């Protein structure tokens, strides 16, 4: 493998293709009309000994300098002659260690990367990686049979795709909430089983449970909670709509207290004058 990489790097150097050490350079073009080539830098994915990786060894191709117009479908089509592909994933930066992968959502996803990206291409057989490292270009991203949208057409398509189907969105949200409720129920059942059971060192884990009942996850209950919060905010906003109104309310309250105090003083003086005041 190392000898093949060196041979490939030497050949690229002779042909004038820029290639970093350890990488193979493959030129690609957006279409036949484009004269200048863009280069993808490929190498077999590998990690240090003793380090776990999310991607399978010997079957994963690591690609640098992937342009924004080259999508996962484009990479899969360009590399499909090398062998059957299991998965293609674009990322902003490489994965340094094993990390948990959450399932991707069609509707809820982070902001797309606007610049260049890296790609991980997993082949079904190790021979696909070796064949990809020996590819010759230029490879065309947009062809007549597989056109790639750009410019205004791409913006219109992205906007149309950003408007979700309400029914499909509801189904995905319901599925996610069912999986989440099941996960929480399993965690609570496991915690209940372990409650009061000492560990290897004889310690017993004590957990705090809230006695407050949990609201059911229904649309009606959610609407009632939102309505109560809305009414509470409205009362607070009306009470403290202006700062000067708040100050005036305080001043009026103090004036009423002073007036009542003076009236009580006069009543006490009158009762003393009539000798009917008996405080004890």
UniProtKB/TrEMBL annotation:
Keywords: Cell projection, Cytoplasm, Cytoskeleton, Nucleus, Phosphoprotein, RNA-binding
Ribosomal RNA-processing protein 7 C-terminal domain span: 162-280
An individual GO BP term: protein localization to nucleolus
Compartments reported by the entry: Cell projection, Cilium; Cytoplasm, Cytoskeleton, Microtubule organizing center, Centrosome; Nucleus, Nucleolus
CDD domains: RRM_Rrp7A (cd12294), RRP7_Rrp7A (cd12951)
Entry annotated with the keyword Nucleus: yes
A Pfam family reported for this protein in Swiss-Prot or TrEMBL: RRP7
Residues of the Rrp7 RRM-like N-terminal domain: 22-78
GO CC annotations, alphabetized: cell junction; centrosome; cilium; CURI complex; nucleoplasm; small-subunit processome; UTP-C complex
GO molecular function: RNA binding
Disordered as annotated region, ranges: 1-20
Signal peptide (residue range): none
Main location group: other
Matching InterPro entries: Nucleotide-bd_a/b_plait_sf, RBD_domain_sf, RRM_Rrp7, RRP7, RRP7_C, Rrp7A_RRM
Similarity annotation: Belongs to the RRP7 family.
Subunit (UniProt): Part of the small subunit (SSU) processome, composed of more than 70 proteins and the RNA chaperone small nucleolar RNA (snoRNA) U3. Interacts with NOL6; required for NOL6 localization to nucleolus.
PANTHER family documented for this protein: RIBOSOMAL RNA PROCESSING PROTEIN 7-RELATED, RIBOSOMAL RNA-PROCESSING PROTEIN 7 HOMOLOG A-RELATED
Biological function: Nucleolar protein that is involved in ribosomal RNA (rRNA) processing. Also plays a role in primary cilia resorption, and cell cycle progression in neurogenesis and neocortex development. Part of the small subunit (SSU) processome, first precursor of the small eukaryotic ribosomal subunit.
Name listed for the protein in its UniProt record: Ribosomal RNA-processing protein 7 homolog A
Name of the gene this protein is made from: RRP7A
